[in-house]
Design goal:
The structure is a homodimer of 252-residue chains. Chain A is mostly helical and 252 residues long. Chain A is built from 11 helices and 2 strands. In chain A, strand 1 and strand 2 form a beta hairpin. In chain A, helix 6 packs antiparallel against helix 7 and helix 10 runs antiparallel to helix 11. The radius of gyration of chain A is 24 Å and the shape is elongated. Chains A and B meet through helix 3, helix 4, helix 5 and helix 8 of A and helix 3, helix 4, helix 5 and helix 8 of B. The structure holds a DNA duplex (30 and 30 nucleotides).
Chain lengths: 252, 252
Amino acid sequence: MATDMEELQADNDALLGAEKVFSFFRKALLDGRLKPGDRLLSERELSLSLSVSRPVLREAFRALAMLGFLDIRHGKGAYVKGPDISVLTDFLTFSLAQQPDILDDVMQARIAIECQAIRLACERAGDADLAAIGGRLTRLMDTLDDPEAGGEADYAFHLAIVEAGRSAALVTLYQAISELLKRSHTARRQLTVGVQGIRDYLVDAHREVFLSIVARDPDAAEARLREHFAIGDELRRKSMLAAYAKIGRPDS
Amino acid sequence: MATDMEELQADNDALLGAEKVFSFFRKALLDGRLKPGDRLLSERELSLSLSVSRPVLREAFRALAMLGFLDIRHGKGAYVKGPDISVLTDFLTFSLAQQPDILDDVMQARIAIECQAIRLACERAGDADLAAIGGRLTRLMDTLDDPEAGGEADYAFHLAIVEAGRSAALVTLYQAISELLKRSHTARRQLTVGVQGIRDYLVDAHREVFLSIVARDPDAAEARLREHFAIGDELRRKSMLAAYAKIGRPDS
DNA sequence: TTGACATAAGTGGTATGACCACTGTATGGC
DNA sequence: GCCATACAGTGGTCATACCACTTATGTCAA
Protein backbone atom coordinates (compact mmCIF):
# COMPACT_ATOMS: atom_id res chain seq x y z
CA MET A 1 0.00 0.00 0.00
CA ALA A 2 2.72 2.36 0.97
CA THR A 3 4.95 1.85 -2.01
CA ASP A 4 3.93 2.89 -5.45
CA MET A 5 3.60 1.07 -8.68
CA GLU A 6 7.23 1.19 -9.70
CA GLU A 7 7.82 -2.49 -9.13
CA LEU A 8 4.57 -3.69 -10.59
CA GLN A 9 6.22 -5.04 -13.67
CA ALA A 10 8.86 -6.79 -11.65
CA ASP A 11 7.90 -10.24 -10.51
CA ASN A 12 11.62 -10.75 -10.51
CA ASP A 13 13.89 -11.45 -7.60
CA ALA A 14 15.07 -7.89 -7.17
CA LEU A 15 12.78 -7.39 -4.20
CA LEU A 16 13.68 -7.74 -0.57
CA GLY A 17 12.07 -10.89 0.74
CA ALA A 18 8.85 -9.88 2.38
CA GLU A 19 8.31 -7.20 -0.24
CA LYS A 20 7.93 -9.96 -2.78
CA VAL A 21 5.01 -11.33 -0.83
CA PHE A 22 3.35 -7.95 -0.45
CA SER A 23 3.90 -7.23 -4.12
CA PHE A 24 2.41 -10.55 -5.13
CA PHE A 25 -0.57 -10.04 -2.85
CA ARG A 26 -1.24 -6.50 -4.02
CA LYS A 27 -1.05 -7.42 -7.67
CA ALA A 28 -3.18 -10.53 -7.28
CA LEU A 29 -5.77 -8.47 -5.48
CA LEU A 30 -5.82 -5.67 -8.01
CA ASP A 31 -6.11 -7.77 -11.17
CA GLY A 32 -8.78 -9.94 -9.63
CA ARG A 33 -6.84 -13.18 -9.29
CA LEU A 34 -7.65 -13.01 -5.58
CA LYS A 35 -11.05 -12.10 -4.27
CA PRO A 36 -12.26 -11.91 -0.68
CA GLY A 37 -13.14 -15.38 0.50
CA ASP A 38 -10.52 -17.12 -1.62
CA ARG A 39 -8.16 -19.51 0.02
CA LEU A 40 -4.46 -18.95 -0.54
CA LEU A 41 -1.95 -21.65 -1.27
CA SER A 42 -0.43 -23.22 1.81
CA GLU A 43 2.54 -21.49 3.37
CA ARG A 44 4.91 -24.18 2.17
CA GLU A 45 3.70 -24.10 -1.44
CA LEU A 46 3.52 -20.34 -1.64
CA SER A 47 6.93 -19.84 -0.09
CA LEU A 48 8.34 -22.21 -2.67
CA SER A 49 6.46 -20.53 -5.48
CA LEU A 50 7.68 -17.06 -4.49
CA SER A 51 11.15 -18.39 -3.67
CA VAL A 52 11.22 -17.03 -0.18
CA SER A 53 11.62 -18.98 3.02
CA ARG A 54 8.61 -19.91 5.08
CA PRO A 55 9.49 -17.65 8.02
CA VAL A 56 9.69 -14.65 5.70
CA LEU A 57 6.38 -15.54 4.13
CA ARG A 58 4.89 -15.93 7.57
CA GLU A 59 6.11 -12.48 8.59
CA ALA A 60 4.31 -11.01 5.62
CA PHE A 61 1.21 -13.10 6.30
CA ARG A 62 1.11 -12.00 9.91
CA ALA A 63 1.42 -8.38 8.90
CA LEU A 64 -1.35 -8.72 6.34
CA ALA A 65 -3.52 -10.45 8.92
CA MET A 66 -2.81 -7.60 11.31
CA LEU A 67 -4.01 -5.16 8.69
CA GLY A 68 -7.15 -7.18 8.22
CA PHE A 69 -6.49 -8.43 4.70
CA LEU A 70 -5.97 -12.05 5.67
CA ASP A 71 -7.80 -14.40 7.95
CA ILE A 72 -5.43 -17.14 9.03
CA ARG A 73 -7.04 -20.23 10.54
CA HIS A 74 -5.00 -22.89 12.24
CA GLY A 75 -5.18 -26.17 10.40
CA LYS A 76 -7.26 -24.78 7.56
CA GLY A 77 -5.38 -22.12 5.68
CA ALA A 78 -5.24 -18.42 4.93
CA TYR A 79 -8.28 -16.70 3.47
CA VAL A 80 -8.54 -13.31 1.81
CA LYS A 81 -10.64 -10.86 3.75
CA GLY A 82 -12.10 -7.68 2.38
CA PRO A 83 -10.80 -4.50 3.96
CA ASP A 84 -12.01 -4.44 7.52
CA ILE A 85 -12.88 -1.21 9.25
CA SER A 86 -12.14 -2.67 12.66
CA VAL A 87 -8.44 -2.26 11.97
CA LEU A 88 -9.03 1.38 11.32
CA THR A 89 -11.06 1.59 14.51
CA ASP A 90 -8.34 -0.03 16.57
CA PHE A 91 -5.69 2.17 15.09
CA LEU A 92 -7.64 5.36 15.59
CA THR A 93 -8.58 4.36 19.10
CA PHE A 94 -4.98 3.65 19.94
CA SER A 95 -3.62 6.77 18.25
CA LEU A 96 -6.11 9.14 19.77
CA ALA A 97 -6.10 7.43 23.14
CA GLN A 98 -2.68 8.94 23.79
CA GLN A 99 -4.17 12.37 24.24
CA PRO A 100 -6.10 13.42 27.33
CA ASP A 101 -9.72 14.53 27.05
CA ILE A 102 -10.05 12.65 23.79
CA LEU A 103 -13.49 11.42 24.75
CA ASP A 104 -14.63 15.03 24.76
CA ASP A 105 -12.89 15.90 21.56
CA VAL A 106 -14.18 12.92 19.65
CA MET A 107 -17.58 14.46 20.25
CA GLN A 108 -16.63 17.15 17.73
CA ALA A 109 -16.05 14.51 15.09
CA ARG A 110 -19.35 12.92 15.96
CA ILE A 111 -21.21 16.20 15.61
CA ALA A 112 -19.52 16.86 12.31
CA ILE A 113 -20.39 13.53 10.78
CA GLU A 114 -23.92 13.29 12.11
CA CYS A 115 -24.90 16.81 11.13
CA GLN A 116 -23.86 16.23 7.56
CA ALA A 117 -25.30 12.73 7.47
CA ILE A 118 -28.67 13.87 8.73
CA ARG A 119 -28.84 16.40 5.93
CA LEU A 120 -28.18 13.68 3.42
CA ALA A 121 -30.63 11.40 5.18
CA CYS A 122 -33.37 13.94 4.64
CA GLU A 123 -32.76 13.69 0.92
CA ARG A 124 -31.76 10.11 0.45
CA ALA A 125 -33.37 7.98 3.17
CA GLY A 126 -35.73 5.27 1.95
CA ASP A 127 -38.58 3.66 3.84
CA ALA A 128 -36.30 0.93 5.13
CA ASP A 129 -33.91 3.52 6.52
CA LEU A 130 -36.69 5.36 8.29
CA ALA A 131 -38.07 2.12 9.67
CA ALA A 132 -34.61 1.25 10.99
CA ILE A 133 -34.28 4.56 12.77
CA GLY A 134 -37.79 4.18 14.20
CA GLY A 135 -36.95 0.73 15.48
CA ARG A 136 -33.85 1.99 17.23
CA LEU A 137 -35.96 4.74 18.78
CA THR A 138 -38.27 2.14 20.28
CA ARG A 139 -35.32 0.19 21.58
CA LEU A 140 -33.97 3.39 23.09
CA MET A 141 -37.21 3.98 24.99
CA ASP A 142 -37.12 0.44 26.36
CA THR A 143 -33.65 0.76 27.84
CA LEU A 144 -33.86 4.10 29.57
CA ASP A 145 -32.97 2.76 33.01
CA ASP A 146 -29.96 0.71 32.03
CA PRO A 147 -26.82 2.80 31.42
CA GLU A 148 -25.15 -0.04 29.56
CA ALA A 149 -27.96 -1.09 27.21
CA GLY A 150 -29.19 2.48 27.04
CA GLY A 151 -25.85 3.72 25.85
CA GLU A 152 -25.74 1.08 23.16
CA ALA A 153 -29.28 1.85 22.04
CA ASP A 154 -28.36 5.51 21.87
CA TYR A 155 -25.37 4.71 19.73
CA ALA A 156 -27.44 2.42 17.50
CA PHE A 157 -30.01 5.16 16.93
CA HIS A 158 -27.44 7.67 15.80
CA LEU A 159 -25.65 5.09 13.68
CA ALA A 160 -28.91 4.40 11.88
CA ILE A 161 -29.15 8.09 11.01
CA VAL A 162 -25.65 8.10 9.61
CA GLU A 163 -26.38 5.00 7.56
CA ALA A 164 -29.55 6.61 6.25
CA GLY A 165 -27.36 9.30 4.72
CA ARG A 166 -26.06 6.63 2.34
CA SER A 167 -22.55 8.02 2.18
CA ALA A 168 -19.92 5.31 2.35
CA ALA A 169 -17.27 7.79 3.44
CA LEU A 170 -19.32 9.14 6.33
CA VAL A 171 -20.32 5.67 7.49
CA THR A 172 -16.72 4.51 7.35
CA LEU A 173 -15.45 7.43 9.39
CA TYR A 174 -18.27 7.03 11.87
CA GLN A 175 -17.45 3.37 12.32
CA ALA A 176 -13.81 4.28 12.68
CA ILE A 177 -14.55 6.29 15.79
CA SER A 178 -17.31 3.95 16.92
CA GLU A 179 -15.28 2.41 19.72
CA LEU A 180 -14.59 5.78 21.27
CA LEU A 181 -18.18 6.83 20.65
CA LYS A 182 -19.60 3.86 22.51
CA ARG A 183 -17.44 4.60 25.50
CA SER A 184 -18.53 8.19 25.35
CA HIS A 185 -22.19 7.17 25.18
CA THR A 186 -22.13 4.93 28.23
CA ALA A 187 -19.96 7.37 30.15
CA ARG A 188 -22.50 10.11 29.56
CA ARG A 189 -25.39 7.88 30.49
CA GLN A 190 -23.76 6.95 33.75
CA LEU A 191 -23.25 10.59 34.58
CA THR A 192 -26.74 11.73 33.75
CA VAL A 193 -28.76 8.71 34.84
CA GLY A 194 -29.98 10.41 37.99
CA VAL A 195 -30.84 13.78 36.52
CA GLN A 196 -34.36 15.07 37.01
CA GLY A 197 -36.53 14.55 33.94
CA ILE A 198 -33.76 12.96 31.93
CA ARG A 199 -35.95 10.12 30.70
CA ASP A 200 -38.55 12.40 29.18
CA TYR A 201 -35.90 14.58 27.65
CA LEU A 202 -34.10 11.69 26.00
CA VAL A 203 -37.27 10.37 24.44
CA ASP A 204 -38.49 13.75 23.25
CA ALA A 205 -35.17 14.86 21.83
CA HIS A 206 -34.60 11.72 19.83
CA ARG A 207 -38.18 11.62 18.63
CA GLU A 208 -38.00 15.17 17.38
CA VAL A 209 -34.83 14.43 15.48
CA PHE A 210 -36.47 11.40 13.96
CA LEU A 211 -39.59 13.33 12.95
CA SER A 212 -37.49 16.00 11.29
CA ILE A 213 -35.96 13.38 9.06
CA VAL A 214 -39.36 11.96 8.23
CA ALA A 215 -40.44 15.48 7.32
CA ARG A 216 -37.35 15.68 5.10
CA ASP A 217 -36.35 19.09 6.39
CA PRO A 218 -32.53 19.26 6.43
CA ASP A 219 -32.19 22.60 8.21
CA ALA A 220 -34.66 21.67 10.93
CA ALA A 221 -33.13 18.25 11.36
CA GLU A 222 -29.62 19.58 11.76
CA ALA A 223 -30.85 22.26 14.14
CA ARG A 224 -32.63 19.68 16.29
CA LEU A 225 -29.56 17.52 16.33
CA ARG A 226 -27.27 20.37 17.31
CA GLU A 227 -29.69 21.33 20.02
CA HIS A 228 -29.67 17.74 21.25
CA PHE A 229 -25.90 17.77 21.44
CA ALA A 230 -25.81 21.13 23.17
CA ILE A 231 -28.33 20.11 25.81
CA GLY A 232 -26.53 16.82 26.35
CA ASP A 233 -23.36 18.76 26.93
CA GLU A 234 -25.10 21.03 29.39
CA LEU A 235 -26.61 18.13 31.32
CA ARG A 236 -23.27 16.44 31.47
CA ARG A 237 -21.59 19.55 32.85
CA LYS A 238 -24.19 20.02 35.54
CA SER A 239 -23.96 16.39 36.54
CA MET A 240 -20.22 16.64 36.86
CA LEU A 241 -20.53 19.72 39.00
CA ALA A 242 -23.08 17.97 41.19
CA ALA A 243 -20.83 14.96 41.49
CA TYR A 244 -17.86 17.05 42.55
CA ALA A 245 -20.00 18.93 45.04
CA LYS A 246 -21.08 15.65 46.56
CA ILE A 247 -17.52 14.51 46.89
CA GLY A 248 -16.66 17.67 48.75
CA ARG A 249 -19.31 17.08 51.40
CA PRO A 250 -19.72 14.14 53.74
CA ASP A 251 -21.91 11.66 51.92
CA SER A 252 -24.29 10.81 54.72
CA MET B 1 -4.81 -3.35 20.17
CA ALA B 2 -7.54 -5.66 19.05
CA THR B 3 -7.88 -7.55 22.29
CA ASP B 4 -8.99 -5.95 25.46
CA MET B 5 -7.39 -5.58 28.80
CA GLU B 6 -8.21 -9.02 30.15
CA GLU B 7 -4.70 -10.27 29.88
CA LEU B 8 -3.02 -7.16 31.13
CA GLN B 9 -2.22 -8.74 34.43
CA ALA B 10 -0.86 -11.81 32.76
CA ASP B 11 2.76 -11.55 31.84
CA ASN B 12 2.63 -15.30 32.17
CA ASP B 13 3.00 -17.84 29.44
CA ALA B 14 -0.70 -18.36 28.81
CA LEU B 15 -0.57 -16.26 25.67
CA LEU B 16 -0.15 -17.55 22.13
CA GLY B 17 3.30 -16.60 20.98
CA ALA B 18 2.98 -13.42 19.01
CA GLU B 19 0.30 -12.18 21.38
CA LYS B 20 2.91 -12.10 24.09
CA VAL B 21 4.94 -9.67 22.04
CA PHE B 22 1.96 -7.45 21.29
CA SER B 23 0.91 -7.55 24.92
CA PHE B 24 4.38 -6.60 26.07
CA PHE B 25 4.58 -3.78 23.56
CA ARG B 26 1.15 -2.41 24.40
CA LYS B 27 1.81 -2.47 28.12
CA ALA B 28 5.25 -0.94 27.81
CA LEU B 29 3.82 1.86 25.72
CA LEU B 30 0.91 2.55 28.01
CA ASP B 31 2.83 2.72 31.27
CA GLY B 32 5.56 4.81 29.74
CA ARG B 33 8.41 2.32 29.78
CA LEU B 34 8.62 2.84 26.04
CA LYS B 35 8.44 6.22 24.42
CA PRO B 36 8.69 7.16 20.75
CA GLY B 37 12.35 7.30 19.81
CA ASP B 38 13.43 4.61 22.23
CA ARG B 39 15.45 1.71 20.96
CA LEU B 40 14.16 -1.76 21.72
CA LEU B 41 16.29 -4.65 22.84
CA SER B 42 17.78 -6.70 20.05
CA GLU B 43 15.64 -9.43 18.56
CA ARG B 44 17.75 -12.11 20.15
CA GLU B 45 17.63 -10.61 23.62
CA LEU B 46 13.95 -9.75 23.52
CA SER B 47 12.94 -13.14 22.18
CA LEU B 48 14.83 -14.72 25.04
CA SER B 49 13.34 -12.34 27.55
CA LEU B 50 9.77 -12.99 26.37
CA SER B 51 10.49 -16.70 25.89
CA VAL B 52 9.39 -16.80 22.30
CA SER B 53 11.44 -17.84 19.32
CA ARG B 54 13.06 -15.25 17.16
CA PRO B 55 10.88 -15.92 14.09
CA VAL B 56 7.75 -15.36 16.15
CA LEU B 57 9.14 -12.16 17.54
CA ARG B 58 10.07 -11.06 14.05
CA GLU B 59 6.54 -11.72 12.81
CA ALA B 60 5.20 -9.46 15.52
CA PHE B 61 7.86 -6.83 14.79
CA ARG B 62 7.06 -6.85 11.11
CA ALA B 63 3.36 -6.44 11.85
CA LEU B 64 4.03 -3.55 14.22
CA ALA B 65 6.30 -1.93 11.65
CA MET B 66 3.54 -2.33 9.07
CA LEU B 67 1.19 -0.50 11.40
CA GLY B 68 3.73 2.26 11.83
CA PHE B 69 4.57 1.68 15.47
CA LEU B 70 8.11 0.46 14.84
CA ASP B 71 10.93 1.65 12.67
CA ILE B 72 13.27 -1.25 11.98
CA ARG B 73 16.70 -0.37 10.66
CA HIS B 74 19.05 -2.98 9.35
CA GLY B 75 22.17 -3.28 11.45
CA LYS B 76 20.99 -0.75 14.03
CA GLY B 77 17.88 -1.94 15.77
CA ALA B 78 14.18 -1.36 16.19
CA TYR B 79 12.95 2.06 17.29
CA VAL B 80 9.57 3.05 18.64
CA LYS B 81 7.67 5.38 16.35
CA GLY B 82 4.75 7.49 17.40
CA PRO B 83 1.45 6.61 15.77
CA ASP B 84 1.66 7.66 12.15
CA ILE B 85 -1.41 8.94 10.39
CA SER B 86 -0.06 7.96 7.00
CA VAL B 87 -0.89 4.34 7.75
CA LEU B 88 -4.44 5.37 8.39
CA THR B 89 -4.45 7.38 5.19
CA ASP B 90 -3.13 4.48 3.15
CA PHE B 91 -5.62 2.11 4.62
CA LEU B 92 -8.57 4.39 4.12
CA THR B 93 -7.49 5.18 0.59
CA PHE B 94 -7.21 1.50 -0.20
CA SER B 95 -10.46 0.56 1.51
CA LEU B 96 -12.53 3.29 -0.05
CA ALA B 97 -10.84 3.08 -3.42
CA GLN B 98 -12.68 -0.17 -4.07
CA GLN B 99 -15.95 1.67 -4.54
CA PRO B 100 -16.78 3.70 -7.63
CA ASP B 101 -17.54 7.41 -7.35
CA ILE B 102 -15.65 7.54 -4.08
CA LEU B 103 -14.06 10.82 -5.06
CA ASP B 104 -17.52 12.34 -5.08
CA ASP B 105 -18.59 10.70 -1.88
CA VAL B 106 -15.48 11.70 0.03
CA MET B 107 -16.69 15.23 -0.56
CA GLN B 108 -19.45 14.55 1.94
CA ALA B 109 -16.90 13.71 4.59
CA ARG B 110 -14.98 16.83 3.71
CA ILE B 111 -18.06 19.03 4.06
CA ALA B 112 -18.90 17.41 7.36
CA ILE B 113 -15.49 17.93 8.90
CA GLU B 114 -14.89 21.43 7.57
CA CYS B 115 -18.31 22.75 8.53
CA GLN B 116 -17.85 21.66 12.11
CA ALA B 117 -14.21 22.73 12.21
CA ILE B 118 -15.01 26.21 10.94
CA ARG B 119 -17.53 26.63 13.75
CA LEU B 120 -14.88 25.68 16.26
CA ALA B 121 -12.38 27.90 14.51
CA CYS B 122 -14.63 30.89 15.05
CA GLU B 123 -14.46 30.26 18.77
CA ARG B 124 -10.99 28.92 19.26
CA ALA B 125 -8.71 30.29 16.55
CA GLY B 126 -5.79 32.35 17.79
CA ASP B 127 -3.91 35.03 15.90
CA ALA B 128 -1.41 32.50 14.62
CA ASP B 129 -4.20 30.37 13.21
CA LEU B 130 -5.75 33.32 11.44
CA ALA B 131 -2.40 34.37 10.07
CA ALA B 132 -1.86 30.85 8.75
CA ILE B 133 -5.19 30.86 6.96
CA GLY B 134 -4.45 34.30 5.55
CA GLY B 135 -1.10 33.12 4.28
CA ARG B 136 -2.67 30.19 2.51
CA LEU B 137 -5.17 32.55 0.95
CA THR B 138 -2.35 34.59 -0.54
CA ARG B 139 -0.69 31.48 -1.84
CA LEU B 140 -4.01 30.46 -3.37
CA MET B 141 -4.25 33.73 -5.24
CA ASP B 142 -0.75 33.29 -6.61
CA THR B 143 -1.42 29.88 -8.09
CA LEU B 144 -4.70 30.42 -9.84
CA ASP B 145 -3.45 29.40 -13.25
CA ASP B 146 -1.70 26.20 -12.27
CA PRO B 147 -4.10 23.30 -11.69
CA GLU B 148 -1.42 21.36 -9.80
CA ALA B 149 -0.13 24.04 -7.46
CA GLY B 150 -3.55 25.62 -7.30
CA GLY B 151 -5.12 22.40 -6.12
CA GLU B 152 -2.51 22.05 -3.43
CA ALA B 153 -2.95 25.64 -2.30
CA ASP B 154 -6.68 25.08 -2.14
CA TYR B 155 -6.18 22.02 0.00
CA ALA B 156 -3.73 23.84 2.23
CA PHE B 157 -6.19 26.67 2.79
CA HIS B 158 -8.95 24.36 3.91
CA LEU B 159 -6.57 22.33 6.03
CA ALA B 160 -5.55 25.50 7.85
CA ILE B 161 -9.19 26.11 8.70
CA VAL B 162 -9.57 22.62 10.10
CA GLU B 163 -6.43 23.04 12.15
CA ALA B 164 -7.70 26.35 13.46
CA GLY B 165 -10.61 24.43 14.96
CA ARG B 166 -8.10 22.90 17.37
CA SER B 167 -9.80 19.55 17.51
CA ALA B 168 -7.36 16.67 17.33
CA ALA B 169 -10.09 14.27 16.26
CA LEU B 170 -11.22 16.44 13.36
CA VAL B 171 -7.67 17.08 12.20
CA THR B 172 -6.87 13.39 12.33
CA LEU B 173 -9.90 12.42 10.30
CA TYR B 174 -9.20 15.17 7.82
CA GLN B 175 -5.65 13.99 7.37
CA ALA B 176 -6.91 10.45 7.02
CA ILE B 177 -8.86 11.39 3.92
CA SER B 178 -6.25 13.89 2.78
CA GLU B 179 -4.90 11.70 -0.01
CA LEU B 180 -8.33 11.35 -1.56
CA LEU B 181 -9.01 15.03 -0.96
CA LYS B 182 -5.91 16.15 -2.79
CA ARG B 183 -6.86 14.08 -5.79
CA SER B 184 -10.33 15.53 -5.64
CA HIS B 185 -8.94 19.07 -5.48
CA THR B 186 -6.72 18.80 -8.52
CA ALA B 187 -9.37 16.89 -10.45
CA ARG B 188 -11.82 19.70 -9.86
CA ARG B 189 -9.31 22.37 -10.76
CA GLN B 190 -8.52 20.66 -14.04
CA LEU B 191 -12.20 20.53 -14.90
CA THR B 192 -12.98 24.12 -14.05
CA VAL B 193 -9.76 25.80 -15.12
CA GLY B 194 -11.32 27.21 -18.28
CA VAL B 195 -14.58 28.40 -16.84
CA GLN B 196 -15.51 32.05 -17.32
CA GLY B 197 -14.82 34.13 -14.23
CA ILE B 198 -13.52 31.21 -12.23
CA ARG B 199 -10.48 33.12 -11.01
CA ASP B 200 -12.49 35.92 -9.47
CA TYR B 201 -14.93 33.50 -7.96
CA LEU B 202 -12.24 31.41 -6.30
CA VAL B 203 -10.61 34.44 -4.71
CA ASP B 204 -13.85 35.98 -3.54
CA ALA B 205 -15.31 32.78 -2.14
CA HIS B 206 -12.24 31.90 -0.13
CA ARG B 207 -11.79 35.43 1.11
CA GLU B 208 -15.35 35.63 2.32
CA VAL B 209 -14.93 32.39 4.21
CA PHE B 210 -11.76 33.74 5.75
CA LEU B 211 -13.38 37.02 6.75
CA SER B 212 -16.26 35.19 8.41
CA ILE B 213 -13.80 33.41 10.65
CA VAL B 214 -12.05 36.65 11.47
CA ALA B 215 -15.46 38.07 12.37
CA ARG B 216 -15.98 35.00 14.58
CA ASP B 217 -19.46 34.35 13.29
CA PRO B 218 -20.00 30.56 13.24
CA ASP B 219 -23.34 30.55 11.45
CA ALA B 220 -22.17 32.92 8.75
CA ALA B 221 -18.92 31.07 8.33
CA GLU B 222 -20.60 27.71 7.91
CA ALA B 223 -23.14 29.20 5.53
CA ARG B 224 -20.39 30.73 3.37
CA LEU B 225 -18.53 27.47 3.35
CA ARG B 226 -21.60 25.45 2.36
CA GLU B 227 -22.29 27.96 -0.37
CA HIS B 228 -18.73 27.59 -1.57
CA PHE B 229 -19.13 23.84 -1.78
CA ALA B 230 -22.48 24.09 -3.52
CA ILE B 231 -21.19 26.51 -6.14
CA GLY B 232 -18.11 24.40 -6.68
CA ASP B 233 -20.35 21.44 -7.29
CA GLU B 234 -22.42 23.42 -9.73
CA LEU B 235 -19.37 24.64 -11.64
CA ARG B 236 -18.03 21.15 -11.83
CA ARG B 237 -21.28 19.83 -13.23
CA LYS B 238 -21.47 22.49 -15.87
CA SER B 239 -17.87 21.89 -16.88
CA MET B 240 -18.48 18.21 -17.27
CA LEU B 241 -21.51 18.88 -19.42
CA ALA B 242 -19.52 21.30 -21.55
CA ALA B 243 -16.72 18.78 -21.91
CA TYR B 244 -19.09 16.10 -23.05
CA ALA B 245 -20.76 18.48 -25.49
CA LYS B 246 -17.37 19.32 -26.97
CA ILE B 247 -16.59 15.66 -27.47
CA GLY B 248 -19.83 15.22 -29.36
CA ARG B 249 -18.94 17.92 -31.88
CA PRO B 250 -15.99 18.15 -34.28
CA ASP B 251 -13.29 20.15 -32.45
CA SER B 252 -12.24 22.48 -35.24
C1' DT C 1 -26.06 -50.97 6.86
C1' DT C 2 -24.78 -47.55 9.83
C1' DG C 3 -22.79 -45.34 13.41
C1' DA C 4 -18.69 -43.98 16.10
C1' DC C 5 -14.05 -44.12 16.60
C1' DA C 6 -9.18 -44.27 15.00
C1' DT C 7 -5.96 -42.95 11.72
C1' DA C 8 -3.49 -40.21 8.44
C1' DA C 9 -2.67 -36.26 5.58
C1' DG C 10 -2.50 -31.40 5.21
C1' DT C 11 -2.43 -27.13 7.41
C1' DG C 12 -0.72 -23.35 10.42
C1' DG C 13 2.38 -22.53 14.89
C1' DT C 14 6.80 -22.77 17.00
C1' DA C 15 11.57 -23.67 17.82
C1' DT C 16 16.54 -24.04 16.69
C1' DG C 17 20.81 -23.12 14.58
C1' DA C 18 23.32 -21.38 11.07
C1' DC C 19 24.72 -18.01 7.85
C1' DC C 20 24.51 -13.41 5.23
C1' DA C 21 24.37 -8.21 5.03
C1' DC C 22 24.65 -3.88 7.17
C1' DT C 23 26.35 -0.61 10.86
C1' DG C 24 29.26 1.37 14.15
C1' DT C 25 33.35 1.07 16.74
C1' DA C 26 37.80 -0.23 17.99
C1' DT C 27 42.25 -1.49 16.81
C1' DG C 28 46.01 -1.76 14.07
C1' DG C 29 49.47 0.13 10.84
C1' DC C 30 50.96 4.09 8.35
C1' DG D 1 47.19 12.03 13.98
C1' DC D 2 44.85 9.64 10.35
C1' DC D 3 43.11 6.21 7.65
C1' DA D 4 41.99 1.46 6.76
C1' DT D 5 41.01 -2.84 8.30
C1' DA D 6 38.91 -6.07 11.56
C1' DC D 7 35.47 -7.11 14.77
C1' DA D 8 31.25 -7.27 17.33
C1' DG D 9 26.43 -6.39 17.31
C1' DT D 10 22.36 -5.86 14.74
C1' DG D 11 18.58 -7.12 11.52
C1' DG D 12 17.58 -10.41 7.25
C1' DT D 13 17.21 -14.95 5.52
C1' DC D 14 17.17 -19.77 5.31
C1' DA D 15 16.51 -24.97 6.22
C1' DT D 16 14.79 -28.28 9.10
C1' DA D 17 12.40 -30.40 12.48
C1' DC D 18 8.61 -30.88 15.41
C1' DC D 19 3.96 -29.63 17.64
C1' DA D 20 -1.16 -28.61 17.35
C1' DC D 21 -5.30 -28.26 14.93
C1' DT D 22 -8.63 -29.60 11.19
C1' DT D 23 -10.50 -32.60 8.04
C1' DA D 24 -11.39 -36.57 5.49
C1' DT D 25 -10.88 -41.15 5.14
C1' DG D 26 -11.22 -45.58 6.51
C1' DT D 27 -12.02 -49.19 9.75
C1' DC D 28 -14.37 -51.68 13.10
C1' DA D 29 -18.26 -52.79 15.90
C1' DA D 30 -23.20 -52.64 16.80
